[in-house]
Structure formats: structure tokens, C-alpha cells
Amino acid sequence: MSTDLGSATDPDVVLVGGGIMSATLASLLGVVAPDRTITVFESAPEVAGESSDAWNNAGTGHAALCELNYTPAGPDGRVDTAKARTINEQFQVSRQFWSHLVRTGLTGSPKEFISPVPHVSFVTGEEGRAYMRARHAALSAEPLFAGLEYTDSPSELAGWVPLVMDGRDRTQVVAATRSVAGTDVDFGSLTRLLFTQAEDRGVQVHTGQRVTGLDRLGDGRWKVTVTDRRTGEERSVRTRFVFVGAGGGALPLLQEAGIPEIRGFGGFPVSGMFLRTRSPELVTKHQAKVYGQAAVGAPPMSVPHLDLRLVDGEYSLLFGPYAGWSPKFLKSGSVFDLPLSVKPNNLGSMLGVARTELALTKYLVSELLQSRSARHRTLTEFVPLAEQADWDMITAGQRVQVIKRDPASGRGVLQFGTELIVGADGSIAGLLGASPGASTAVSAMLTLVERAFPEQVAANRAALEAAIPSYGRDLSSDPALLARVRAETMQTLELNG
């Protein structure tokens, strides 16, 4: 990776941002458009420093195995599995593509970025138990969730998650599901591996280079203006296609490009904090990821969870997130990010959300006012015997939730998830939003290459199907293909224990 722009020439493709999305897109283009020249610009000194960094995201490997917000219950108690099924299917696509990259020479061992960890959903109270039973009944009927276990036995749960059950009131009603097919993913490590492989085949990756301008030229190309963060030197390249995968920084750059498709979109930044412990005794007693239910008024990204993490070869536990707030769109951003993102074309959307999301505002204020002891009390709801001295607070990444105009009402709505923005002519695109972004990066970027490079996809479909055997097919309705894909990815990614 280079910090010098002297070698930068006019490429076919420019990727803005050195995170998991750009890394994934570079790898996919290596399959469907191997003759295209690609240049990556990352403003930080290293790639994967923001949302893709291991400590800046949950690293769950979102497959909807344990995240309860993906399986909402209706007024009649029935659980809707549609979103969970979609997310799990998308994660299976990611695993297939990662397996392909490992087979074709991805540097290092799969254990550097993915490891097996059971995923557990945990609730308390009679209402929680009724919901968990309904959720288990609905999901276990789906082929993608085969093997999902249920229990409301405290003694059985003590074997699944001893740290969560030790010291808990034995009369408390508890219920849980468990999938042993869960994983922990270090997206920072994966991103770096993907970029290393991309450079080996000629992709130019420039760090310390901030994209400050996107201007459409008369011949249909884009002029990309880049400023060297160290020297202040400014220069530009011209390209036929630009992808803005800059996390929270994507919104301002798409606004700078002036494309009609970004009109009406805004962003609401939310930061997060986690309590972390590296105590070997505690880590040994919690070999799982456990997700609970979000507090009333809390955004889905604030679902409490106690995660086993493997980062840089070291195990730790993370509990949270505790919501914070900053007007910055990136951890390394500016306090003017939010106010400068307000434009005449999205002011209505922003004001609409300010009026309708009072519960979220109240929740964020209460979170910001929490003392250290109050945060510890929240932890003890999950880990009854937790000692405050064993845990330290870390700040995670910034997330910019999508604000968009509702076509039906014309009002602004806050959207949790990701939004792919593609220009009408397919020459520019960007990704907004947050979870479950990283886990479903391959599906998101597949959608992009289909829209922006349709001829290349058609010409190289066989190569794409070799890389992703389920491409164009539905795993949930093809049990034989699902079984084959699972077996192959587990073996290649070394997930058999």
C-alpha cells in the first residue's frame, strides 16, 4: 500500500474508502471484470481503520441466528422470519465467496478472520419465553436454521452460558435458543487480507489520501480530487466508475457529486461504547455470543449482547453497546459533519425524523447521562456476578443511520440497515447505513456489479457461479445445494472445530 500519489494514473474504477465494502468490490471485480484497472483511496494511514476495524463493530457474522430484532413478533404473537431468512441467505453468500478466495490463494489462514462461536438468544420473563418459543418454532421450520436448539431450563442454560446464569435468581423465568453454526468475524483482518490479494493482481491502494471532490465531466467520466493528508498536495484522476464506500463519509461525498438519487437522504450519527474484559477466567466461562432484547425506544443497533471475540489471536468478552452521540460521521471526522450534511433537499427529511423519533432522542439522552456504576448495573443484568474492576470501557465506531424520504407520506423516516445508492447511468454508487453491512457485503456488492457492470457479469457468469455456487439461486428452497454449500464452506474456512 502506498501513501504516494505519484504512481496514480487514470483508472477504470475508483473505490473511495479502504473498508470491507471496497475490499469486497475489488475482489468481485477481479472475477467479473478482471481487465479493469482499479485504484483505492483511503484517508486514514491504514485500511480498515473505521467501521471495519475489529473493535469498531460487533464482529458477529450476522446470520440472524441470535439477533432478535430480525425476527419481530406481530400483535398475534406470530414471528415474522422474512428478514432473518434474507440476512442468513446473504451471509451464506459471503461465506461462499470467502471460501473461493481462500481456495484461490487468499493470504494466511481462515482462522485469521473467522472462527466458530455458538450464537445464543436469551430472554427473561413469561412474555419473553412465549416469544422465544414462537421464534424457535418459526425458525426451526426453515432449512437455513436447521439445528436451532431451544431451552427454558435454568440447569441446561447453565451449561450453555454459565457466566450468564451464575448468581441468577433461580426463580426467574428464562428462555434461550442456540445455534452451534455461529461464527465470530474479524472484519478488519479480512479487509486487510482482501486488499493484499487485490494488490497482488495490480490494484493500486493509496492510504493517507482524502477524496475531497467528485465532479462529472462532459465525456461522462468523473474527476476525483484527492488531497494528501500529510502534505496538503492536491491532484486528481479521471475514471469511468466511482464507488463511495467511505462509511459515514459516504453521504457528504455523494452529496458533493450532486447525483439526483441522493436527494432527500440524510444521516443520523450514533456512536457506541462497550465494556471489555480480557480476564482468562471470565473468557473461559463464556464461549458464546449472547443477544438479548433492545430496551424500549432503543435503536436495533443497541441490542444488548455479550460476545466472545477473537482479535489478533487474543480472546476477550465485549458487552454493550452503550449508545453515545457525536455530530461526527467518522471517528476521525469533524464536529461539522452533521450540520454540513443538511441541505435544502433533505431538510424536510431531517426535520421529520426529529419530530417522530422522540423515543430515540430520550433513549440517547438517558444513555449519555449514565454513570459508570449505572453501566455496570446494566452489565449485571446479563452477568449477575460481574465485578466492575474486571471490565474497561472502549469506544466503538461511529454509525450513520440512514434518513430517507418516505414516498407514501413524503416525511422523513429513520432506516436501520444499509442503502445502496446507484446513479441512473451506473457510473457512480455508494453505500449508506450500518448493520448488518459487513456480514452481507458480498450480496450488497453483487447487486452493485449487476447494475453497474451488467455486460461483464453476463460474460463472466460461469466464473461468478464457480466463486459463489448459489449465485442466482435460493438456498432456502434447495436443501441439497444448501447442504453442499455448508459442507464446503465449513471445510474451507476451517469451521469444524
UniProtKB/TrEMBL annotation:
| Similarity-based family | Belongs to the MQO family.
Give the cofactors, semicolon-separated.
FAD
| One Pfam family cited in the UniProt record for this chain | Mqo
Tell me where on the tree of life, at the top rank, the source sits. Answer: Bacteria
Give the protein name, as stated in the record. Probable malate:quinone oxidoreductase
Name of the encoding gene: mqo
* Coiled-coil annotated residue ranges, if any: none
- Give the transmembrane ranges: none
Please state the pathway this protein functions in, per its UniProt record: Carbohydrate metabolism; tricarboxylic acid cycle; oxaloacetate from (S)-malate (quinone route): step 1/1
Q: EC number(s) per UniProt?
A: 1.1.5.4
Q: What is the lineage of its organism?
A: Bacteria, Bacillati, Actinomycetota, Actinomycetes, Geodermatophilales
One record GO biological process: tricarboxylic acid cycle
